[in-house]
Amino acid sequence: MAHEHDHSHEEVPAFALEVPEFEFLRYEVAEGIAWVTFTRPKALNALAADVLREIAEVTEVIAEDPEVKVAVFTGEGKAFVAGADISEINALKDVFIGREFALAGQEVMNHIAALPVPTIAAINGYALGGGLELALACDLRVAAKKAKLGLPEVGLGLIPGFGGTQRLPRLVGVGRAFDLILTGRHVPAEEALALGLVNRVADDAAAAARELAQQIMKNSPVALALAKEAVARGADVPLPEALEIEADLFGMTVTTHDMREGTAAFLEKRAPEFKGE
Ligand code: CAA
Fold first, then answer.
1. CATH 1.10.12.10 fits 221-267, yes or no
2. Is the pLDDT of residue 119 over 90?
3. How far is the centre of ligand 1, averaged over its atoms, from the C-alpha of 86 (Å)?
4. Topology annotation, domain 2-216
5. Is the pTM here over 0.85, yes or no?
6. Whose CA is nearest to atom 10 of ligand 1?
7. 153 catalytic per annotation
8. Residue 49 DSSP SS3
9. One of 4, 11, 67, 153 is an active-site residue; which one?
């Protein structure tokens, strides 16, 4: 089943996607998992504008690829992503352009957060600044033991601008977020686990992400998408409204083939076969 999207095949199935050529990342789909690997290790995979553009493009590809059940983001070399590109930031002078810079990066992170499939950041090394912000836009984070995570922006005279001041406190609480944002320190993987900043720590982040993805993929794809939607939409509204969102989406599950199959399989003491319908 493993395959790479490849334009060289003559016989392209009707549903085949046009996958753009990427310069700063690699896109592969294998056994239901989309792997997005950042491939600019010499610059520690820093998020230059061109890289951000490619990430926005790859999220569109993922969203439209029916073969993708889970997406994993990871980096080549010793970094996951070492942040936004500091040389590009250094050239910024105008308050409006600075604001646009942050908004453009936030939009890319929002594209990741809005993906319909579960997403995992496989943090293989440094996840700093914009790199941690990208990981925070994913649903789950697994870190290699040697990984270091942080928001060091204040040491550059900046603040986090790709969502870090907002997604980090929502994930770990305001007090813990202040620790990271005000010190700018690099947090080792084990501490990140204790803080609730990552979900798993392992020798090999990609292997751990694959394992997690395989566990997730045993479940109903429709239920996964609705569960993700419930958590995401509920996070930003008052509880009574959030509970209504949950009830609406729960209501939708009972009309699905997957729910018929999942509950019947339980009652018949057999494994379910989900169709994602
Ligand atoms: N932007 C641009 N280039 C970067 C970069 C970044 N964020 N991070 C690393 N690089 C470049 C380095 O300049 C260096 O380039 P050269 O080989 O041309 O000199 C190369 O990547 C390798 O990096 P180092 O030599 O620094 O590697 P190291 O092992 O000594 O240190 C590190 C690793 C501790 C991660 C260090 O590179 C570092 O501190 N990087 C910057 C981390 C950072 O501050 N990130 C926040 C950026 S601002 C931001 O992200 C704002 C926002 O919220 C949107």
1. yes
2. yes
3. 7
4. 2-enoyl-CoA Hydratase; Chain A, domain 1 (3.90.226)
5. yes
6. 43
7. yes
8. helix
9. 153
